[in-house]
């Protein structure tokens, strides 16, 4: 049984990590979050020590380390801009680290953390759960078996509606979240380059507070993509059914069905890591390069090869 500590226990994604730790037969010893709405811990590890101050969390981990019962893994679910610092904390402590995506916001952060891996002898693993989805694995196999000169044409659309709370939270601050493309798109970009090969072109058509869209060219695919957190951008049939999320990958007119099968992907990710696999920090580099370029380039507007949803009317920022 491995011992875990969790940073960011009150976040949206934290329960999936708690479940994965429990369902792989391990123990959550301590958790920390500046917010104390963490009653969910009772459902998984009611005896875990919880702290709202990082200094006391640090002291507790040091205490059990000196008692010869050190933490084996630090799992990180904190806001995106803190991942780099929290990963370094875990490595300095002497633990391996499992971190939610995006693992960092900038490519050069990966270089520094890989140096720390070498210095400490411990490893950093990224949750890249789409690589473990059966449908995506099958797609990768199909692409690998296609003719060498075959270039796939596809549209990626992901709309996950968020209320105005989003803009008040750290997620609505691009300096902390990296913006829409980084916060909700990075795992899709990782999946695309994993399936279709290295990126050759990255064009951004739209990048506002509530949506982003652009065009990728990979070694084996041309991709028009659209991401949004605005419910008004949902297709009419989705709205009519009362749903607030729309996820679509259309490959040359054929819809790739992968709306199911997400529930256990964090568990599979933990199992993979604990049995000697997992995706090391260097494997996240391509996706981090992609989102960094999206974040720092100037959108070109509606020209070239753009996603049809780009024509939807833009919305004003709710607080500006």
Amino- and carboxy-terminal Cα gap: 51 Å
Helix-strand pattern, N to C?
Answer: EHEEHEHEHEHEHHHEEEHEEHEH
How many separate structural domains?
Answer: 2
| CATH topology assignment of the largest domain | Dihydrodipicolinate Reductase, domain 2
Strand order across the biggest sheet? 3-2-1-4-5-6-13
Radius of gyration: 20 Å
Q: Please name the fourth-level CATH homologous superfamily of the largest domain.
A: Dihydrodipicolinate Reductase, domain 2
- Helix tally? 11
* Shape descriptor: globular
How many strand units? 13
The overall pLDDT, averaged over residues, is: 96
Tell me the CATH architecture of the largest domain.
2-Layer Sandwich
Largest sheet: 7 strands, mixed
Structural class of the helix and strand makeup?
alpha/beta
Q: What are the segments in which pLDDT stays under 50 over at least 5 consecutive residues?
A: none
| CATH class placement of the largest domain | Alpha Beta
Helix share of residues? 25-40%
Beta-strand content estimate = 15-25%
